[in-house]
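Write out the 3D structure for:
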Amino acid sequence: MAALATFALVPAAMAADGTYSVYACKGPTGAPVGSSGWAPAASPQAHTSDACSGGGPLALSLDAGAGGGQVAKWTFQAPSATRIAGLNLLRTTQGLAGTSNTNVSYVVNALGVAPDGNTKELESCEKKNDKCQTELSAPVSKPGLDAAGLVVQLTCATGLLDSCPTAAPTVVSLGQAVVTLRDATAPSVSGTKVIDDGDKSGTLRVRFDAADQGGGLYRAVTRVDGKVVATQGLGDANCADADPADGDAYQFVSAQPCPASATGRESSINYKSLTAGPHTVQIEVEDAAGNSTAVYATQFPRANADGGGTAVDPKRLLQGRVRAWFPSGPKGKTHLRSRTFAYGVRPLIRGYVVDRKGKGIVGARVDVYHVTRNGKRTLVKTGLKTRGKGLLTYIVSKRLDTRRIELTYRALRPGPITGKVSLSVRVVKGGKTFVLPENRKGGKKKSARK
């Protein structure tokens, strides 16, 4: 049948917000793709063919000498919750040149055009009145549409007694079709849950469910201070940018490329991938047309202070230092870094967190580690929080053996330790230094009671 032609590519138009492009026959790189969304129909003496996946065109043809009323057409219907916003078409013809074949007509129409739902002609060649006498090859570009469908149609007259007395078939070949679809509905998000706030692991992890009408759920996007730092696809191979190199992320080879729903999906970010300092992290879900809905937003890492109701300068926190001691003597005015206690007595520790100028940092969380004689370091408290003027108080358990106690401050959470103090506790029992057997150097763990 049809003569095969060499087609240039339609220049990629950057998709506007709320639209996405669907490529047929050739993708934006020129690689062969399918014909998603296009449906054929033909009369007995008319034909359609689809060679897109092999690098060929969508074609329409009329037999030589076809009778009146014979029709071949390719139709594209906008998927649910979308509208056709534009069409770019590369097509060539064979059999339209000259003044013969006067009963043939070729037309491209937009169907269901807003606001009245009528049909709008986008391109035509009606031989009956000699409106065109040359073959067609120039690209077709029709932006600014608002339609429910498209049809490319080749017809031999309309009367059954008419005919198209040609010696060879009449052929229209579509080398590339790019339909721009408008999707005005943003995704919906539900079931958002912080799986890990990152305070200990360093990685913020958020789980969510989402749903979308139209092009479907495309990807989860992580922004840091408003800039995209990571994307995570939510669909299969069809739900992927057809040309990641050209800067337009909303080009697909499927009319409805992405899934309508996603359940239990997770996004994450590790603080070590960020520059020092607190950042605004926002996770969004985006559909195929670029419409987005926020999933979760937070400061991460978080400034380790609440300021007592006043604004906190992160630079001031980075200079924070922690001081702690065992109070002793009259009114506890003597500050000791090491002290001996009888077994069963609860040691009292006081301290503060201040900046370089000595001003207290209010609402700072301090981590408390215990280091036993065998070198084992255990985090025993994370909720120790400074009060007014940056002061803190920590009362140690009475069931204690000899050990070191470390108080650490992190200006950002999560983040590295920026301030640390170590205190030594000697516990005496029966006049001797008391160390639990399992905490001695080389000691074994205490066996469970039978």
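The chain has three domains: 19-182, 188-240+256-300, 307-439.
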